[in-house]
Design brief:
Layout (H helix, E strand, L loop, with lengths): L2 E6 L6 H10 L7 E6 L4 H12 L2 E8 L2 E7 L3
């Protein structure tokens, strides 16, 4: 299991989800991806995308205008 980061700041829907999807394709099951975003839409978009695609949404943190969403890559 490895931990990875993706910078999706200043991108608007649907780009954070598309970038997340592209990055996850390069990772292995069990890897953790932290996606840093500024679009609050990711709070609903990434959990829904994770559920539909078999990944585990682990939660998020917020710091000022940045949101860090954490996803565990599924098998």
């Amino acid at each position: 299991m490895s931990k990875h980061q993706l910078d999706a700041r200043r991108l608007l829907c649907p780009m954070p989800v598309i970038r997340t999807q592209d990055k996850v394709k390069t990772l292995s099951p069990g890897d953790i991806l932290e996606v840093t975003c500024t679009d609050p839409g990711v709070l609903s978009d990434i959990p829904a995308w994770s559920r539909i695609n078999g990944h585990e949404y682990l939660g998020h943190t917020e710091n000022h205008d940045e949101i860090v969403v954490t996803v565990k890559v599924g098998g």
